[in-house]
Design goal:
About 15% of the residues are buried. By secondary structure, the chain is of the alpha/beta class. It has eight helices and 15 strands. Strand 12 and strand 13 form a beta hairpin.
Length: about 475
């Protein structure tokens, strides 16, 4: 059952920025509240208070609400009007569908001189003979009773008949009080029987709430046979328990009951018990969610996007690296992000949820880096690719007639530039002329081959050496 707490009031004070000391309107309806408390100390400026459809049995702790104008206590368990004298500004009071049988308690409202409207329909006192005449005569400041305006002639007639009507009301009140005392005894007896029944059932049940039976002697010794025997037994037991609870529920609703505060409390407690039992059954049936599979049994990584984030993956050929741009939440703390780069995939944990992506090429995890964008908050991961950058001559070579001067100029330019050996010369359609003939094979380190000046046939110093292979 619910209680009035500071957190409950704050959650219902969103229209006042959750500030309760200056709150003027508060709605606590349908909260299963059993007692009216704390409001007169925490919310002194209240003007409107909604408490309908609860389990409040007594009007209390509202006398300090001097500014209260409207109090709604409909659909509760109130049996008497009391403790409202301090509500000096009260103009409207709703007590519809309660259990008020002491109609004479309305006289306590004579001190509320600003009270203009009162609702008492649905209470046992509303069935008394002379009910309206009694209230109209007792509360002369009223303008409306049960939604019907009080005429001046009606009040004059009620005042004239008040002594006789008051006597009738007293007699009916006395009869109602005797009947109410019997109902209370009956409710107490039923409650005692339920408690005794629960105790008797508790003696025959084990600590887990199930019927205890010693079956250890009949079970086989092996563990497999134990499981085989117990599994159908537990299933049958659950079915039996479910059927029993369904039969008990049907029996409860078909059983006749009195219209009393006790029966209303019993109904709500039964509904609460059914709800808890249903939650327990659903928890037992609920299966544990298996962990997310990121790597297959054969070692193959999977693409996973559990946080459901947008991303882009591009291959930066100019810098020979792969760049991942992951659109993580802009204002999320970086400590909630964990990046793990592997040679074939990258994994990012965002608030415990995995994002994994298989890479199109092998990368260097040790040389990788990650950072957050200051404007968008995105996570950018830079992953250099494995392997050297292959550079080669562009285009095909054309035969050019060279002269000694031009050859010397080209030699000087080529010596200034850094030469790189080809990783895979077979990929190119032309041979590397500089490396066809090696002058010294025993040289331990690589020596840059100096290009030779090719003399032309028209040169007088030209000699054809047959041992030198022809140039292609």
């Amino acid at each position: 059952m619910g209680r009035i707490t500071e957190d409950l009031i704050r959650r219902n004070a969103e229209h006042n920025d959750c500030i309760i000391f200056s709150l003027e309107e508060l709605s606590l309806h349908q909260q299963e509240i059993e007692r009216l408390e704390h409001i007169d100390r925490w919310c002194r400026d209240l003007k409107i208070l909604y408490l309908q459809n609860n389990l409040i049995g007594k009007i209390e702790n509202v006398s300090k609400l001097k500014k209260l104008e409207y109090l709604n206590l409909a659909l509760n368990n109130i049996e008497k009007i009391e403790n409202l004298e301090g509500c000096e500004g009260l103009t409207k009071l709703d007590l519809t569908v309660n259990f008020i049988g002491e109609l004479s308690s309305v006289k306590t409202l004579q001190h509320n001189i600003h009270l203009k409207e009162l609702f008492l329909m649905g209470n046992p006192c509303a069935d008394f003979d002379g009910y309206r005449q009694f209230v109209v005569a007792a509360l002369q400041q009223l303008k409306w009773l049960d939604g019907k305006e009080i005429e001046r002639s009606e009040r004059i007639q009620a005042l004239q008949d008040f002594p006789v009507v008051e006597q009738q009301i007293r007699e009916q009140e006395k009869a109602y009080c005797l009947k109410r005392a019997k109902d209370k005894e009956e409710a107490q007896r039923k409650l005692q029987e339920e408690e005794n029944k629960g105790e008797r059932e508790g003696r025959h049940t084990g600590f887990d709430g199930r019927w205890y039976t010693d079956i250890s002697a009949t079970l086989p010794s092996s563990e497999e046979s134990k499981d085989d025997v117990q599994a159908p037994e537990i299933q049958g037991e659950c079915k039996k328990k479910k059927l029993d609870s369904g039969e008990d529920d049907l029996e409860f609703w078909n059983k006749p009951s009195l219209y009393t505060p006790e029966s209303r409390l019993e109904t709500l407690r039964h509904m609460e018990k059914q709800r808890k039992d249903q939650e327990k059954l659903s928890e037992k049936k609920k299966k544990v969610k298996p962990p997310r599979v990121l790597i297959c049994e054969d070692g193959r990584a999977l693409n996973v996007n559990e946080p459901k984030l947008d991303f882009s993956l591009r291959d930066d050929e100019k810098r020979n690296q792969i760049v991942l741009d992951l659109a993580v939440y802009r204002y999320m703390d970086t400590s909630l992000i964990d990046v793990d780069v592997q040679p074939t995939y990258v994994r990012v944990m965002v608030k415990g949820k995995p994002f994994q992506l298989v890479l199109p090429a092998e990368v260097k995890p040790d040389s990788s880096s990650a950072k957050r964008a200051q404007t968008t908050g995105h996570l950018v991961v830079y992953m250099p690719k494995v392997g050297e950058i292959i550079t080669g001559c562009q285009g095909t070579s054309k035969p050019v007639k060279s002269t000694p001067d031009s050859s010397r100029e080209k030699t000087n330019k080529r010596s200034q530039q850094m030469e790189r050996l080809e990783v895979d010369p077979s990929k190119h359609a032309f041979p590397d002329v500089a490396n066809i003939v090696q002058a010294k094979k025993h040289t331990p380190r690589r020596v840059q081959a100096e290009p030779k000046i090719i003399p032309s046939e028209g040169d007088p110093d030209f000699e054809d050496n047959p041992e030198v292979p022809p140039l292609i």
